[in-house]
Amino acid sequence: MKIKTRRQGKRAALLLGAAFLVLALGGCGEQAVEETAADVAVVEAANPELGSLSLSGEFIATIEPEASVYVIPLATAEVMEIMVAAGDVVEAGDVLAALDDTIAQITMKNAEVAVKNAQISLDNAQHSYNMNFGEGASILNDMQSDNTLSQAADGVTQLQESLVDAMTALDTYKRKLADAQEDRDKAEEEMKQAEEEYKNAQNNNSTTTGFESMGLGSMDYVAAMTKYQQAAEAYSQLQQAVASYKSAIDQCEETIENLQNNIDSTYESYGQAVISSNISNGELREEQKKASENTISQAKLGVSQAQLSIEQAQENLDTYTITAPISGVVETVNIKEHDFATSSNPAFVISNKDAMTAVYYVSEDVRNTFSVGQQITIEKDGAVYTGEITEIGAAIDATTGLFKIKAGVRGNTSGFLSGTKAKVITDTYHENNVLIIPYDSVYYDGTQAYVYTVVDGRAKKTNVTTGLFDVENIVITDGLTRDDLVITTWSAQLRDGVAVSVREPADNGADSAQE
Fold first, then answer.
1. Is 326 within 8 Å of 94 (Cβ atoms)?
2. Which of 219, 392, 452, 458 is the most buried (most CB within 10 A)?
3. What is the CATH number of domain 73-98+320-346?
4. Do 326 and 84 contact (CB within 8 A), yes or no?
5. Exposed (0-12), middle (13-18) or buried (19+): which is 330, by Cβ within 10 Å?
6. Residue 141: what pLDDT?
7. Nearest to 38 by CA among 17, 60, 8
8. Does domain 137-293 fall into CATH 1.20.950?
């Protein structure tokens, strides 16, 4: 509890004033009063004022940006280029660094190709639907059905005619083959006889006359040799004819087999054409229409999925360009060109110094006196800034054991460095709408506070309960009302029940007594 000290100079002045007052009254011929000059206390008095009183506290705060972000790469890749350095001012969206996006570019191109292919599939499905089931498709379908039936019938007829021709040719080649074989057999007998005659002539020609040895030979030998050569030639030609007819017969048989297969297939196609023609406008056509619609739906889904893929590819590609999420100053750069950027390490730290915050810590009792929006004063390097409390900690800080307070700083704070210290001055304890009197008006009897009030011209000792105080004023929470006249100056004669003379304050130039 703060103990009041007496002011000796003021006491001497008051005593001297009381003596002059007694002399003045005697000199004017006034009737003597019961009290002597020494028994009258000359004082100043005033009514309590209704107002507010607060105490200020000083705290050491750390200056921090209100908005500070760690820029973390979303892709792991080689750093190709860094566009900023520590201390640079950037705007939100500015490019900070570019990573190697080769793989992402390939993914994007593949996604673009997939979109084009999906769109082509959709266009084809839509075109097919329009051709088969759109306007005029029924007429066209009927025409196509008639044409199919006609073509199938014509095909059967043509194949049957070709089969007759092939079977006729087969018979012809078989007869020719039989004739050729017979002629060949005869030619073979003739060739054998000619060969025998030729051999005999050759033997007979081995013993010749002198005239024959000259190369002329016998006439029988020459005739036999010529006959044999002609017979051999005829046999060879007939043998080739037999082979040719056999080959032709084989081809005819193969042709006949193929024609028979084609006739069977054409009959089946003809039957299907008849069935299709009969039910083309019935349930089968409706099923085909639904199938075509399903194809269109699937194609549309394919386009949507492909477009989603390209959006995802674009989002992935964007992660290879690191941009500033906020406007501010680049505090640190933690990557280098040709190093690998990863999501485990922040690449940049950016702070918005347009709005700085003072962070300081207080005890619980001081914390309970604060309110959000409360005004503060910040002193930094000889400059004074204003601000207001923006956040009051609800839990004790584990490191300091105190409560964290944050206050926004107004004014030009661009020169503030993050992490520097400043002094914060703000009201701590305060009381509003209370009775306030001068601090020197209160006296103490042990621990009991009291004041002197003026009641019927005399001093009355009045016990009071005090509250908040500073070097000039003190709050009275109990014992006084606004109508009480409180003695605000000290006097040597001042005691309970003494007569008092209340004078105007010295700056008014006049005194007035209240008996």
1. no
2. 452
3. 2.40.50.100
4. no
5. buried
6. 59
7. 17
8. no
